[in-house]
Amino acid sequence: MSFFSDLKTLYHVAVKPLRGSGQAARLESFYAGQAEHFDDFRGRLLHGRREMFSSMEVPPGGVWADLGGGTGWNLEQIGPRIGELSKVYLVDLSPSMLTVARQRIAARGWTNVETVEADITTFRPPEGRADVVTFSYSLTMVPDWFTAVENAWAVLQPGGVIGTVDFYVSRKHPAAGLAQHRFFGRCFWPAFFSLNDVFLSPDHLPYLRRRFTPVLCREARGRVPYLPLLRVPYYFFIGRKRTEDDASCCVSGNHKLSS
Ligand SMILES: C[S@@+](CC[C@H](N)C(=O)[O-])C[C@H]1O[C@@H](n2cnc3c(N)ncnc32)[C@H](O)[C@@H]1O
């Protein structure tokens, strides 16, 4: 971490206007000048990633698609178990982020990890299906986030696992067991992050809990670099795609639901 690299990142986050028509162009305009320092600054902002990735099952011989995988920092959190997977696809629309990811893959000697420049609302692995899909702070960047979730559902094998970690705000009247955020937070955080085309939603978590059988769900708050008094809300959710044998889509509680 250096103050100079933080300054560069802050310039791209807070000053430089986003340009380009279409999401791919806007993402690249946002990340081109900061991909190199992304892991440093975002390591202090994107909370819950280590916890979620290290909590996920690694199916031996399975296929894992990390959607909006960026620089590949999260794959480090899987640890040596990554070698047990037959294939990992790190999918992203930003060439600059994928360049950093490819350097990481080469440095770690991960022969089973491949980067793919593609849109996560439409990406399909060549195998047809995946056993695990993850979204780490990428759903909030997709305007039609529900198409990304629907695509993940279609890609997953029955019984396959989805993991999502992201910023969010609660609904004004959340379901029983879920956190309720105050008026200020529900207004402030979406406006603050929308400056970077990051769209916090009260609907991600309810939709994920409805679409998948919850395995682990956590809501918390984390620090924001250079804003010492503020704590931004984030969640992580691990869920399973139902098999035909699964009964209902009942959703309950906020913590560990089954293993
Ligand atoms: C905040 S970064 C998070 C990167 C990484 N998942 C992490 O946790 O470090 C979000 C990433 O999602 C990617 N992204 C956003 N929308 C996308 C889309 N529609 N298709 C592919 N990638 C997308 C961005 O390019 C960016 O690399």
Q: How many distinct beta strands? A: 7
CATH topology assignment = Rossmann fold
* Strand content range: 15-25%
What CATH first level would be assigned?
A: Alpha Beta
Sheet bearing the most strands, described? 7 strands, mixed
State mean pLDDT (0 to 100 scale). Answer: 91
Distance between the terminal alpha carbons, to the nearest Å? 37 Å
Helix amount: 25-40%
Describe it.
The chain is α/β, with parallel strands linked by helices and 259 residues long. The chain has a single domain (44-240), classed as Rossmann fold (3-Layer(aba) Sandwich), CATH 3.40.50.150. It is 33% helix and 22% strand. The protein contains nine helices and seven strands; from the N terminus they run ααααβαβαββαβααββ. It has helices at residues 3-15, 23-31, 38-42, 49-55, 73-78, 95-108, 145-155, 183-194, 204-211, and strands at 63-67, 87-92, 113-117, 130-136, 156-167, 213-223, 231-240. The protein has a seven-stranded mixed sheet with strand order 3-2-1-4-5-7-6. α7 (145-155) runs parallel beside α9. The longest helix is centred in the middle third of the chain and has 14 residues, at 95-108. The protein is globular. The chain starts with a helix and ends in a 19-residue tail after the last strand. Mean pLDDT is 91; it is low at 248-259. The structure holds S-adenosylmethionine. Residues 23, 27, 31, 42, 46, 49, 68-70, 73-74, 91-94, 97, 119-121, 136-138, 141-142 line the site of S-adenosylmethionine.
